[in-house]
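Input protein
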Amino acid sequence: QRGAMVLPCVAELAPPLVARALVDILLRLHPDCGLTPMPPAQTAPAGASPMRLPGFCSGCPHNRSTKVPEGSRALAGIGCHTIAMLQNPMQTTTVSHMGGEGAMWLGQQPFTNERHVFANMGDGTYFHSGFLAIRQAIAAKVPITYKILFNGFVSMTGGQPVDGELTVSRIALELNAEGVNEMAVVTDDTDKYRAMNLQLALPHGVAVYHRSEMEAVQKRFREYPGVSVIIYDQPCATERRRLRKRGKWTDPDKRVFINAAVCEGCGDCGKVSNCMAIEPLETEFGRKRKINQSSCNKDFTCIEGFCPSFVTVHGGKPRKPAAPQASIEEFPAIPEPTITRPAGQYSILVTGIGGTGVVTIGQVLGMAAHIDGLRCSVLDVTGLAQKYGAVLSHVRFAADQNALHATRIATGEADAVVGCDMIVTAGDETLSKLKSGRSRVAVSTDIVPTADFARNPDWRMDTDALLGRLKQACGDGLVAVEGIRIATALLGDAIAANMFMLGVAWQKGMIPLSLTSIDRAIELNGVQVDFNRRCFLWGRRAAHDPAAVEKRIAGSSANVVQFVPRETLAELLSRRSAELVEYQDAAYAQRYRSLVDRVAQAEAALGSGDALTRSVAKYYFKLLANKDEFEVARLFSKPEFQAELERNFEGNYVLHFHLGAWPFAKIDPASGLPLKQELGPWVLKAFRFLASHKHWRGTWRDLFRNSAERKLAQQLLSDYEADIDGLLAGLSPRTREVALKIAGLPENIRGYGHVRVAHAAAVAKERQELRQALEAARTAQAA
């Protein structure tokens, strides 16, 4: 048919697509060729497929260097920075080939009112041919700013050294000779330029700025009428991490920790850092944040989020549980599963997150198959997966080489799936390989956030829904365990989860390879051999006797986050009332109970459950327990904070605090917003003093009583009390749904300082709309 699409022009040309197209064409041309039409593509389970798109590594310089000021746009090229197109497609657009960076702007610029664009480029691209792209922009005299990341590695393809002996000064001198007169160097380490007099090697007039001034530099450069260049000097975070492990790079003796009690869950730390090491932490008082010490690359940008909950731990190391020694009584010899040598082809799909060692599992399986005398193939589908995206390893083996006709597992041909990540395992790509009655799946049910969490503080995935997708695809052949939680508790590092899940799958009989061959393959891999053997063994134990493994975790000193069970209404009120007594006094707690009791009585009269009462109990408490200076001091002074530090760190460490409240705040001249300052351990004594004088709150001794933030807190509290009083005056089945929304508005009032002000302004608009909807409902009811 003329004009019909034979093959899609976007995304991957998977073998089933090509096969279906060829069969359709052959049948049209030669109906008697003996082929039969291929069955339609397998329908994916109901519900949107979860996606794990690539993201910048934690601490990656691109988390900062690719950002542009409001109202500006950037052009992409070849390199890791292209991921910025996935994260903010309206700000970073139009990818080009290597050496063509910015070329599209030459054609666009005469026909648009847009005055200026930025263009991203890596140092490897610059040396290869990006230099030519800048030359053509100079010749065309267009207003464009090239941002050249100088990180010293070709990070996108494995961290190889950049060809050529590039330095920041050589790049600057070369571009200056070509006619670029407006340049700046932005770096995370201005001290090295002063200590080594590196600025003397730069062309005259090229200044060096700290990375915190990046936005101000960009705003100035976008007003320049010609070609300008910003050289962003910061090493690749992943390569720096690898070199630190080998003792070849200075490793700062400090780590970031978040006091969850102080955290408001506003997400400003993720906004400023775009860091994947910041993860959600569900608590009795809502979602907070935590730092994944296993993936943190010590970039420290997250500290700039306007929140006092961040402390830096100097001189301490993450506490790892002692290697558990299982007694014979606890864990007798584990019976081995029945292993049947595959008669034909056997296909195993390993799914997980790029950069966490998933490919290693495929390599171990391939080597183990070879040791067992089987023919095998291993295909790693990674793409940009090493940047926290989805990765799938297709492992196929058979006794006869001729049975391995394709390296990729086709639709419905997976015999087993080792699911190291829930989101990737429940995605459409993985599910297309499954067939009920044939495929078996061992999956880790822990939800690891995607890159979306850094931009959306309310991001979440429904574990039950994802498990439902898997059950629909593979039927009864599903084994689900909290692999990351259990492996981290037992072995002290989340990286243990992948080999742990392989142990689970093997013990459940999903991997038809001998125990001896897998052990030998782990040995031949040559990386953390004893550690990986223990990971595999604990996976076997968890598959065989999960209750005994959970008992071992419960009896250890491991820092394990327990999931918070749903509280009864009585428990919820009791916990929050006790907190308000500690916050101020018993009278303050009674003020809370009085309003909540009135709501409970009114809702009980409707006979419609306790959802409204629960909502008021949560959010009235949140406004009453506003985290002012006295409350932040009290939360840092509590013994629970010190106990949490002890569970996470060991060694002789000291704490530094990062505060942005008066009198410590400085004002950023570019944005006009306050900046946090780093303060020493003495702050804890000041916190204890404030905490012991909480009765000063609101009195003439309270130096903070007239601050704008304190006045906002009082206004929000009085508005909420007035709203609830108004709701109770005419609560009915017709108004209840709007009442629930009004009662829950404080959920989105989060953060400190200007962050809280912005959230409160957004909620104020929503409040006005809901009040109008409430009046409309009452009018309709009266009619």
Notes: The chain has 28 helices and 25 strands.
